[in-house]
UniProtKB/TrEMBL annotation:
Residues 166-287 form the Fe2OG dioxygenase domain. The keyword Oxidoreductase applies. Belongs to the iron/ascorbate-dependent oxidoreductase family. SUPFAM superfamilies: Clavaminate synthase-like. One of its GO terms (molecular function) is oxidoreductase activity. Coiled coil: none annotated. The keyword Metal-binding applies. This is Fe2OG dioxygenase domain-containing protein. Keywords: Iron, Metal-binding, Oxidoreductase. GO terms for biological process: small molecule biosynthetic process.
């Protein structure tokens, strides 16, 4: 049975991008403050309409409604593209997330990874159109972050140039499976998405109203820290708002000034939780492989985009290995205790 979650009320900044070109300084101040304190904020007046968001959700659902054998024609690869189902294991839990996802990119990594038009005729064009909208919005935020850190306005935009074949930014379509509320308490191994921090620059998260579950747990002071607290805050949002969180890349690039916050999608288990199928869409701003990454104060060694991603993955796998070893020791201890009980 899952333990009761400890919650704390936190105010998540809500920032309007209306009249952006004339309000850049004001918006930059608000975004930088949110990045320095919460690591999370929501955006309104983004230029992406509620209808456009709902349209991409329908596109996403059309993919996930396909039989697994059809989705398996575009399998997930180490290049961070393709479809996976219950294969992502978080170091925080040691168990697979109860979801499926389809990861899309702009560049060469998508060769042979678009679902065939024979199954979904307009899927690729619809997805690409939305990806470009998400990129355009991301570039406004990149400009603000660049100014906040004293870099040229186009500094982060060049590092995430989607016209380049080595662009790594990802649109991830997500489908969390429904939970049978009548089946009783969930297993301790059931997580919709275990606690984690993103390792990109910035994540834009699109959600459907009424499909709750996203929670945050602030507190990291250094990007090299894997630890976290245990007091969570539920994230609510207005229809059409886009939730944003700082990733490990921007935390490192800012010399730990901006905070990459742990977050999760809670397994429904308490009154008020959403038990139905949950859909969300995340746009991860990930750097081109050869861009150079180092904060203005040089706190961390200079690395390339490829090196940063590789190190982040290795850190994640090391933490997962440690978690599995810990779980193994716990199982052995339980087994030994049971054996003693039988003997006595």
């Amino acid at each position: 049975m899952t333990a009761a979650t400890k919650y704390a009320e936190r105010s998540i900044p809500r920032i309007s991008l209306a009249d952006f070109s004339n309000r850049i300084d004001e918006v930059t101040t608000q975004i930088v403050h949110a990045a320095e304190t919460d690591g999370f904020f929501s955006l309104t007046d983004t230029g992406i309409s509620i209808d456009e968001i709902e349209a991409i959700f329908r596109t996403s659902e059309s993919f996930f409604d396909l039989p697994d054998e059809v989705k398996a024609t575009v399998p997930f690869t180490h290049k961070n593209v393709g479809w996976e189902k219950k294969s992502q294991i978080r170091p925080s839990t040691g168990f697979p997330d109860q979801k499926e996802s389809y990861q899309l990119q702009f560049g060469a990594n998508m060769a042979d990874k678009w679902i065939s038009p024979a199954h979904l005729p307009s899927f690729q064009s619809d997805a690409k159109a939305f990806m470009h909208k998400a990129q355009s919005l991301s570039e406004k935020l990149m400009l603000c972050f660049a100014r906040g850190l004293g870099f040229p306005d186009d500094y982060f935009i060049k590092a995430h140039d989607i016209s380049r074949p080595d662009c790594q930014s990802v649109l991830r379509l997500l489908h969390y499976f429904a939970v049978d509320r009548s089946a009783g308490p969930l297993s301790e191994s059931f997580y919709r998405a275990g606690a984690h921090a993103d390792w990109d620059l910035l994540t834009l998260l699109f959600q459907r109203p009424g499909q709750s579950g996203l929670e945050i747990c602030p507190g990291r002071e250094a990007v090299t820290s894997f630890g976290m607290g245990d007091t969570w805050t539920k994230i609510d949002f207005a229809p059409g708002d886009i939730v944003c969180n700082i990733g490990d890349l921007l935390m490192s690039w800012s010399d730990d000034r901006f905070k990459s916050t742990f977050h999760r999608v809670k397994a429904p288990s308490e009154e008020g939780d959403y038990f139905g199928p949950r859909y969300s869409i995340a746009f991860f701003n990930q750097p081109c492989t050869d861009c150079e990454i180092q904060g203005p104060k040089g706190k961390y060694p200079r690395v390339t985009g490829a090196e940063f991603t590789k190190a982040a993955m290795e850190r994640n796998f090391a933490a997962l290995k440690a978690k599995k070893e810990e779980m193994g020791r716990e199982q052995q201890a339980v087994g030994a205790s049971a054996q003693v009980g039988v003997v006595s």
